[in-house]
Design brief:
1289 residues; mainly beta; seven-stranded mixed beta sheet; 6 helices; flat
Length: 1289
C-alpha cells in the first residue's frame, strides 16, 4: 500500500509524540520511584540514541516537508541531545535535593541508611542578630538546616558461621608443622553492629579451645543495620563452631548451628634419592619411572596432581590420580602412609572427652595423610624434558598452585589437562605459593650414536722390507697401540671415520682385523681392540698391515649406538716402483743429432714421476718428468750445441710419493741444435715519413750467422742480408731505410745460415710499421683578443693535428725567456693563462713524432674594475676623512642623490647606513644594495627620523665583475646628511579633563590648560575650540618661547562638552608639523557638568540574600563609594540610574559618596542599612543520626537554633521504605506514606526537644527568627552591581 504525503507526516508526528511521552513517563517514574542519580545518565543516553535514530530515519524516509539536508539533520540532532542533557541535569539536581530532604536511601542488601554531608556546628550562647562568629553560605540549604534523625525499630539479631559452607585450608610453613598464615572465616550477622562473639576451636589432636567476647569488624564500611559479613581470623587447622553473639545493646542474639572445617592445604614434591641431583640422563626410547609424594587431608581417593612437561617451546599438562598411579613392578594402586600421628577411624579418641561424635568425625575427616603417585615417560626424541609441578587438588577441592619458572610459558596445552578450580568456587580455596622455589626435574634424552667409514675405496700400504722383523699380529697390535697418533708414517695408512649423531663424548668404538673379506664375513678376526675419542671431528684408524678392518660396535657417554655403511675398509700391500731406460738419437740432415728419445718402462701405481739431472758443460740442472702410464717416451731437445749427460736419480708412484732412488742409470748425447732467429719485440710500430725504425733480433744456434730479411711495401719487396757474430746466441739490430711514403711496411725474417753452412727458412712472426703521411702541428685559434678580469685566468683555444696526447711549448712575447710546457694535451684541451700579453706556440710533438708549430699569435687583455663617483652638485662641502656633506632637510621630506658608475652596465651598488650621535659614534642602521641599468643611478635617503646619517659605499659590481672584489683603497665614497626633526606638541592634562563643574569659579588657576612643546624656540601654535552645539573658533599663539605653555580658553558658562584641537606648530628651524584631526592624541575634551545625587529604596529589615536598591540623579556614568562594616569598598561605576547591592554576608553598609563622570560629587548623610543573618536549625548537633530502638521504647530529638528569638520552625517525619511500618504491604519500590509536617512557634529559647516512639526520618524543613527566615527565595547575584562581603570586593 502506497502512503500519501499527509499520512507520512502523521506517522512521523505520532512517532515524535510517542518519544516525548516516553521521556515524560521516565521523568515521572524517576521523580517518584528513582533513588539513584547514576540511572539518570543512562536514561539521557537512551533518549539521545532514540532522538538520533529518529532524525536519521526521518531523513532516510524522505517525508515531504520534513526532509532536511544532512547538515540541518545534524543540527537538529545536536539540539535534541542538548535538550536531553539539560533535562537530565535538572532531574539529577531534583533527585539530589530529594535525597537531601529525605535523608534516606534504600539498599537492596537488607539495610537502610541515610547520609547528609554537612559541616559540624557548635551551640552558641550568643543571640546576636549579626552572628559574626559564624557566617553561613546562603546558597547551600545544609548550611542553615543541619542534621537529621532516623529511628529504626530493629528485629532480633541472627548469626551463622560460614553460611556458604565453604571449605578452608592453611598452608604449613616449609620444613615445619606450624604455619604463619592467617585466614578469615566469614560470619553472616543480621542486626545492628557492633557485635561481640564467642566461638569454640577443636584442634587436630582433639583438644578444645574457647574464645570469648571477640570484637569483630564488618567487611564493608561503614557498619549499618541489616545483613552483613564479618571476619574471624584463625591460624590453626581444626573445627570451628560459633557459640555466642551479642549486638550493640549487649543483648544475646540467636546462633544458627554450623561447623567450619579448616584443614592443612595439600602439598606435593618430586621424590629423589638425592635432592641435589635433579637431572636424569636417558637414551631415546628408554622408559623413565618417577614418583611424587602428595600430602593431603581426608580421603586420598580424590587427590589430583597436575604437572607440565616441556621441551623447547612445546608444553603439555598431565593429570595424575589413583587410576593412573601404579608403582613399577606392583599391582597396588595407592600406597598410603600416616606420617602425622593423627586420628584415624580405627584408632581410639585421645582428645577431650567433651567433644561430641559429630565434631570427632569432622576432626578425623581433615587429618593429613601422605600418598605416593607413580608415573613413567619414554622420550621419543633427543632433548631436555622439563617436568614441573603445577597444582594439587585434594578431595575437599582445595587447590595449591606451585610457583612458576621463567623457563615455562604462561600458557599450557594438553588434552589431559584440567584447569585449576576457580577461586570463586563455593567449596574450596585456591592458594598460590610464593615462598618456595619451583619444583622441577629434568630428563635429558640422548640420541644413539652412529659410526661408519668415510670412504669405501680400498687403501694401500707399502709392503714391509724383506729383512723386517715381527709378524702380522704384532703389526696390527702396533697399529692399534698407536691409534692416538694423528701423523702418517711410511708403513701406516689412516682410515677416516665419521662419528654421527647428537651424542655426548667420549666415544668408544670397537675395531676388528681379518685377513680376507670372507674371513670378515664369517667373523674370523685376527685381533679386536677398542678405541676412545673425546671429539667427533677428524677421527681415523691407523692401519699398518694389509687385510680387512671392520667396525663392530660404538657407544657414547650414555647410549649404545649402531654401525653404519660402509662398516669395513680393505687395505692392500703395494711394492716400490721400478724403471728401465733405453735411448735413441734424433737425427736431422745437415746438422746431425739434434736430440734424444728416452724409452721408460715402469712398475707400480700410476701416476709416476721421474727425477733426473741434465749436465751440460759441468753445470747440473735437476728436472722432473711426469708419466701417467707404465710405458712412455721422453724427448730431450736442448737448444744449445754440445755434449749432454742425463742421469736418472729417483722414481715415485701414487704410493711411494717420496720416490725410490735410482743408481747407475744415465745416457750421454752430443747435440747439434738447429739455428733460429726471431724479433725481440714483434709489436706493431708507428713512424712518420722521413723517419727510420730499429728492430732488435735474437739469434740462437751455431754462430756466426747470416740473416736474410725483406721489407715489403704495397707491391714492392726489398731483400737485405746482415751478418751477426756469436757462438751459441747473439743479437743484431735491423735498421730500416728512411720512409719516404706513407703506408704500412712489413719487415719479415726469411732465412738464417749458421757456421756449418746449414740454412733454414724462418717462420717467425713479422713486424708491421705504420708510416704516417703528416707530422703533428699546433697553433692558437684566437680570432680576436681574449679578455679576462683582474686576478682571473683566460682559456686560449688551440688547433691540434696528429695522434694525441700532445706535448706543447709556448711563450709570452712580453717575457720570451720563460718557456711554458704542457704535456699530455688532447685535441679538446685549451691553454689556461693568467697574465696579459701575446702568446705563441714554439714546439709541438705527439705520441709518435715531433711536428711543426704555426706562428699564430693570441693576444690577452685585462678588463678594468668598475668605479663609483658622487657628482659635486650632490654635496655642499667635504668634511674630515674625505666625507662629503649634503644639505640638511626636515623630517619626512623625500630625498635622494645621484651617483655615477664606470664599467659595463648593469651595476650593483652595496652601501651601509650609519647614524651618528653628537660625539660622532656610529650605529649601524641598515645595509642595502641598489641596482642601476645605466651609468647614472639614484640612491634613496632616510628622512623619516631626525638624525645625522652617514652613507658609506663599500662595493660596486658590473656585468664583468659580478663577484664582489676587495678595494685596495677602502670604501669607494662616503656622504653624510642631517635630518632636522619637526616640532611636536601635546596636552599635559591628558585626552579628557573635567574643566569645571557648573557654578565653580571660572577664574580658578586649575582652569588653565598646559601644552608641552618640543623643538627649537620660538614657536607658532594654532588651535581650534569647538562646543558640541556651537561653531568652531580658531586660536593662534605666536612667538612662544617656553616649552610648557599654559593658556586659558574663553569663559565656559554652559554645561556640555568642549573640544580643543591642535592644528599646526612651527619652530625656529622653519620645520612645521600639521596635526591630524583624526588623531585622538592631538585633542582634549573639556566638559562642564552638574553634581550627582543618591537616595535609598530599602525596607527596615534586610536579610542575607536580599538586594539593596538606590536611585541616582544626574548625568551618567556614576561612581559610588560605600563602606561595609566600616571598611571602604571598591568603587562602583554604573550608567543606569539604579544601584543594586547583593547582601552576601551580615553587616552594616553605608553609602559615603556619589560622583558623575565630571567628578562633580555629593556626600549623603544617614544612608545606612543593617543586614541580618539567616537563622539556622541544628538537629542533634548537626549530625545524621541513625538510632535503633526496640518496639515500645522512646527517643529524644534535640534541635538548636542560631539567630535572634523568638524562633519558629517546621519539621517533618517520613516512613522509611522497607521498614516495619510498611513491611509486607508493598515492595521496596512501593510508594511510602506521605510526609507528616509539624510547626512549632514562639520559642524564646535557642534549644528544643522532640520525644517520639515512631519509626521514620525526622528533619527540619523551615526555621524563622525575629528578622529573617529560611528557606527563602534568594535574588540572583549576577544582576547586582556589587556583592557585600567582608574585605575589599
Amino acid at each position: 500500500m502506497q502512503l500519501d504525503s499527509v499520512a507520512k507526516r502523521q506517522i512521523a508526528s505520532a512517532v515524535f509524540v510517542g518519544i516525548v511521552a516516553l521521556k515524560m513517563h521516565q521523568i515521572g517514574w524517576q521523580m517518584w520511584y528513582g533513588d539513584s542519580v547514576e540511572g539518570v545518565g543512562w536514561i539521557v543516553l537512551l533518549w539521545s540514541v532514540v532522538d538520533v535514530v529518529f532524525v536519521v530515519g526521518l531523513r532516510l524516509a524522505r517525508v515531504p516537508r520534513l526532509t532536511f539536508s544532512w547538515s540541518v539533520s545534524l543540527l537538529v540532532a545536536l539540539v535534541l541531545v542538548a535538550v536531553n542533557v539539560g533535562v537530565g541535569a535538572g532531574l539529577s539536581n531534583a533527585l539530589l535535593a530529594a535525597s537531601t530532604s529525605d535523608a534516606a536511601h534504600f539498599n537492596s542488601n537488607h539495610n537502610n541508611h541515610f547520609t547528609i554531608r554537612s559541616p559540624q556546628f557548635k551551640h552558641s550562647d550568643s543571640h546576636s542578630h549579626l552572628h559574626s562568629d559564624k557566617a553561613l553560605d546562603t546558597a547551600d540549604p545544609s548550611a542553615h538546616i543541619v542534621g537529621s534523625h532516623v529511628v529504626n525499630v530493629v528485629p532480633p539479631t541472627l548469626a551463622k558461621m560460614n553460611p556458604s559452607g565453604n571449605r578452608y585450608c592453611i598452608v604449613r610453613d616449609s620444613a615445619s608443622t606450624t604455619t604463619s598464615q592467617t585466614i578469615a572465616l566469614p560470619l553472616q550477622i543480621k542486626g545492628t553492629p557492633p557485635y561481640t562473639v564467642d566461638y569454640q576451636f577443636v584442634s587436630l589432636d582433639g583438644f578444645i579451645s574457647e574464645f570469648k567476647n571477640i570484637q569483630i569488624d564488618s567487611l564493608s564500611m561503614p557498619p549499618k543495620r541489616g545483613l552483613a559479613l564479618y571476619p574471624i581470623s584463625v591460624q590453626a587447622p581444626g573445627v570451628y563452631r560459633l557459640t555466642g553473639l551479642r549486638d550493640s545493646t549487649g543483648m544475646q542474639g540467636k546462633v544458627i548451628e554450623s561447623l567450619t572445617e579448616v584443614a592443612w592445604c595439600p602439598d606435593a614434591h618430586w621424590i629423589f634419592a638425592d635432592h641435589t641431583q635433579r637431572t636424569v640422563d636417558k637414551c631415546v626410547d628408554d622408559t623413565v619411572d618417577f614418583s611424587v609424594s602428595v600430602k593431603a587431608s581426608s580421603s586420598l581417593r580424590g587427590v589430583q596432581l597436575y604437572y607440565s612437561r616441556r621441551i623447547e617451546s612445546e608444553e603439555v599438562v598431565i593429570r595424575m590420580d589413583k587410576s593412573s598411579s601404579i608403582p613399577p613392578g606392583s599391582e597396588d594402586i595407592l600406597a598410603i602412609d600416616d606420617d602425622e600421628g593423627g586420628l584415624t577411624d580405627d584408632m581410639p579418641w585421645l582428645g577431650d572427652s567433651d567433644v561430641d561424635l559429630v565434631v570427632r568425625e569432622r576432626v578425623r575427616a581433615i587429618q593429613p595423610r601422605t600418598v605416593t603417585l607413580y608415573g613413567s615417560f619414554k622420550p621419543e626424541s633427543a632433548g631436555a624434558f622439563f617436568f614441573r609441578l603445577l597444582h594439587v587438588v585434594d578431595s575437599r577441592n582445595n587447590t595449591v598452585v606451585f610457583p612458576a619458572d621463567s623457563l615455562f610459558s604462561s600458557t599450557t596445552v594438553g588434552a589431559a589437562a584440567s584447569p585449576p578450580p576457580s577461586p570463586a568456587s563455593p567449596h574450596g580455596n585456591v592458594i598460590h605459593l610464593s615462598d618456595r622455589n619451583p619444583d622441577i626435574f629434568v630428563i635429558d634424552s640422548h640420541a644413539h650414536p652412529t659410526i661408519r667409514f668415510a670412504k669405501s675405496d680400498a687403501f694401500k700400504i707399502r709392503a714391509p722390507l724383506p729383512n723386517s722383523a715381527g709378524n702380522q699380529k704384532e703389526a696390527v697390535a702396533a697399529a692399534s697401540d698407536s691409534a692416538h697418533t694423528t701423523h702418517e708414517t711410511s708403513s701406516v695408512v689412516m682410515l677416516p671415520l665419521l662419528l654421527e649423531g647428537d651424542a655426548t663424548a667420549p666415544w668408544t668404538y670397537n675395531v676388528s682385523h681379518s685377513l680376507t673379506l670372507a674371513a670378515a664375513a664369517r667373523g674370523e678376526y685376527t685381533r679386536t681392540w677398542t678405541l676412545t675419542s673425546d671429539t667427533s671431528l677428524a677421527q681415523s684408524i691407523p692401519a699398518s698391515q694389509a687385510g680387512v678392518y671392520t667396525l663392530t660396535g660404538v657407544r657414547d657417554a650414555f647410549c649404545v649406538g649402531a654401525v653404519g655403511s660402509p662398516h669395513a675398509n680393505v687395505v692392500q700391500e703395494t711394492f716400490p716402483p721400478t724403471i728401465r731406460v733405453s735411448a735413441e738419437a734424433i737425427e736431422q740432415s745437415c746438422v746431425g743429432t739434434v736430440g734424444a728419445l728416452v724409452n721408460v718402462s715402469l712398475t707400480g701405481d700410476a701416476p709416476f714421476w721421474i727425477g733426473y739431472d741434465e749436465v751440460y758443460r759441468g753445470k747440473r740442472v735437476g728436472k722432473t718428468a711426469v708419466v701417467g702410464k707404465l710405458r712412455d717416451t721422453l724427448q730431450f731437445r736442448p737448444s744449445l750445441p754440445g755434449t749432454y749427460l742425463y742421469e736418472f736419480q729417483a722414481v715415485g708412484d701414487a704410493t711411494y710419493t717420496e720416490g725410490i732412488p735410482i743408481t747407475n742409470v744415465s745416457i750421454t748425447q752430443i747435440i747439434h741444435p738447429q739455428s733460429e732467429a726471431r724479433f725481440a719485440n714483434p709489436a706493431k710500430l708507428t713512424r712518420c715519413t722521413g723517419d727510420s725504425a730499429t728492430l732488435p733480433v735474437t739469434l740462437m744456434g751455431s754462430g756466426p750467422w747470416r740473416l736474410t730479411y725483406e721489407i715489403i711495401f704495397e707491391n714492392r719487396k726489398d731483400r737485405f742480408s746482415v751478418t751477426a757474430e756469436g757462438d751459441e746466441s747473439g743479437h743484431i739490430d735491423i735498421i730500416t731505410p728512411e720512409f719516404d711514403e706513407a703506408g704500412v711496411y712489413v719487415v719479415d725474417l726469411i732465412e738464417i745460415t749458421d757456421a756449418n753452412g746449414c740454412s733454414w727458412l724462418l717462420e717467425t712472426p713479422d713486424v708491421s710499421i705504420e708510416v704516417l703521411a703528416q707530422r703533428p702541428s699546433a697553433a692558437f685559434n684566437c680570432l680576436r683578443p681574449v679578455h679576462m678580469l683582474e686576478g682571473d685566468s683566460a682559456l686560449l683555444p688551440v688547433s691540434l693535428s696528429g695522434r694525441q696526447p700532445f706535448n706543447i711549448k709556448y711563450i709570452n712575447s712580453e717575457i720570451p725567456s720563460i718557456v711554458h710546457e704542457l704535456r699530455d694535451v688532447t685535441e679538446r684541451d685549451t691553454i689556461r693563462v693568467r697574465d696579459s700579453g701575446t702568446y705563441q706556440i714554439i714546439e709541438v710533438s705527439d705520441m709518435v713524432c715531433s711536428g711543426t708549430a704555426n706562428p699564430v699569435e693570441c693576444k690577452v687583455k685585462t678588463i678594468p674594475k668598475p668605479k663609483l663617483e658622487i657628482p659635486p652638485n650632490e654635496y655642499t662641502s667635504v668634511g674630515a676623512g674625505n666625507v662629503f656633506v649634503r644639505k640638511s632637510i626636515c623630517e619626512g621630506v623625500d630625498d635622494s642623490m645621484e651617483v655615477l658608475a664606470s664599467g659595463k652596465a648593469p651595476f650593483s651598488i652595496k652601501y651601509s647606513i650609519d647614524s651618528l650621535d653628537e660625539t660622532g659614534k656610529k650605529s649601524r642602521v641598515a645595509s642595502k644594495e641598489e641596482h642601476a641599468s645605466g651609468r647614472v643611478g639614484r640612491i634613496p635617503l632616510i628622512t623619516d627620523k631626525p638624525n645625522t646619517y652617514l652613507y658609506t659605499f663599500n662595493q660596486i659590481t658590473d656585468d664583468n665583475y659580478r663577484r664582489p672584489f676587495d678595494s685596495a683603497h677602502g670604501p669607494t665614497a662616503a656622504i653624510q646628511q642631517t635630518i632636522l626633526g619637526r616640532p611636536t606638541a601635546a596636552f599635559v592634562d591628558g585626552r579628557e579633563r573635567v574643566f569645571q563643574c557648573l557654578g565653580d569659579n571660572p577664574d580658578d588657576a586649575n582652569s588653565a590648560i598646559s601644552v608641552q612643546l618640543e623643538g627649537v624656540p620660538p614657536f607658532d601654535l594654532t588651535l581650534e575650540l569647538k562646543h558640541e552645539n556651537h561653531p568652531r573658533e580658531v586660536i593662534r599663539l605666536t612667538n612662544v618661547t617656553e616649552k610648557t605653555h599654559r593658556f586659558r580658553p574663553p569663559t565656559l558658562s554652559a554645561t556640555g562638552r568642549y573640544a580643543i584641537q591642535l592644528v599646526a606648530l612651527k619652530d625656529g628651524t622653519g620645520c612645521e608639523r600639521v596635526f591630524d584631526r583624526e588623531d585622538g592624541a592631538s585633542g582634549i575634551s573639556v566638559a562642564v557638568s552638574d553634581v550627582a545625587r543618591i537616595a535609598g529604596l530599602n525596607p527596615e529589615s534586610v536579610c542575607v540574600g536580599d538586594v539593596l536598591s538606590y536611585t541616582l540623579q544626574g548625568t551618567p556614568p556614576f561612581t559610588i563609594t560605600y563602606e561595609f562594616d566600616g571598611v571602604e569598598q571598591e568603587h562602583v561605576q554604573i550608567v543606569d540610574p539604579l544601584l543594586t547591592l547583593y547582601a552576601a554576608e551580615p553587616g552594616t553598609v553605608t553609602i559615603t559618596g556619589v560622583c558623575n563622570h565630571m567628578n562633580c560629587c555629593t556626600r549623603p548623610s544617614n544612608l545606612t542599612n543593617v543586614i541580618y543573618n539567616l537563622p539556622s536549625a541544628i538537629v542533634d548537633g548537626g549530625k545524621d543520626v541513625v538510632e535503633d530502638i526496640r518496639e515500645g521504647d522512646e527517643t529524644v530529638i534535640k534541635i538548636d537554633f542560631l539567630g535572634e528569638p523568638p524562633f519558629s520552625f517546621t519539621y517533618a517525619r517520613r516512613d522509611l521504605p522497607g521498614s516495619s511500618a510498611v513491611a509486607g504491604k508493598a515492595s521496596k519500590k512501593a510508594v511510602p506514606k506521605a510526609e507528616e509536617t509539624f510547626t512549632i512557634t514562639n520559642i524564646e529559647s535557642d534549644h528544643y526537644e522532640i520525644t517520639t516512639n515512631q519509626e521514620g526520618l525526622f528533619h527540619v524543613t523551615a526555621v524563622y527568627d525575629k528578622h529573617c527566615g529560611f528557606p527563602r527565595v534568594l535574588s540572583a547575584v549576577g544582576s547586582s552591581n556589587a556583592v557585600l562581603k567582608k574585605g575589599k570586593n
